[in-house]
Amino acid sequence: xxxxxxxxxxxxxxxxxxxxxxxxxxxxxxxxxxxxxxxxxxxxxxxxxxxxxxxxxxxxxxxxxxxxxxxxxxxxxxxxxxxxxxxxxxxxxxxxxxxxxxxxxxxxxxxxxxxxxxxxxxxxxxxxxxxxxxxxxxxxxxxxxxxxxxxxxxxxxxxxxxxxxxxxxxxxxxxxxxxxxxxxxxxxxxxxxxxxxxxxxxxxxxxxxxxxxxxxxxxxxxxx
Length: 224
Hints:
Elements: E1 6-16, H1 20-33, E2 34-42, H2 45-54, E3 60-63, H3 74-82, E4 88-92, H4 97-105, E5 110-113, H5 118-129, H6 146-155, H7 159-169, H8 174-181, H9 185-199, H10 204-216
Parallel strand pairs: 1-2, 1-3, 3-4, 4-5
Helix pairs in contact: 3-7, 4-6, 7-9, 7-10, 8-9, 9-10
């Protein structure tokens, strides 16, 4: 029996990585596993969102955390919140357990280190397509630390709140954010209040520190 183990359904994947050679290798890996597949390649977060807006019924995104526009976990947060029905598997060169746990908390359905072999990557993708979660077997998702707690809080933000938080981190004022999002200043103030409440912080400054940490993938006490 051939390697094409997943029957005749047409699967649609987005391979998102800013290195064309890696996208090509991942394309070959996926095409060897699935008998009928459509693959869209993207080299930045903007290209991913454009593909998702253009394509119907995308089954899976294979996402690199370090490509242009991603800014640490902020891109993953936005994609997961904006395109709720599309599972995301992070494919990354980083194998740090805290990063892996945080990616899952932010809504990824899997995390596959780039160092793993072709068959392991294929198995991981299959598990996620079947509705499961795949991470390296030596990672314990039950570990609860400061990173996990803050990831849970950040994951509760709505897509619009994520955008507001990222704009706060860029130093924009409420008036400027309102203009960028085409909403009223009062709406922005309401979003900011909700962000502070969800993150368990007391000021915009502490919220900006939280945003900086998710972009850098660094975790320490934010309210301290």
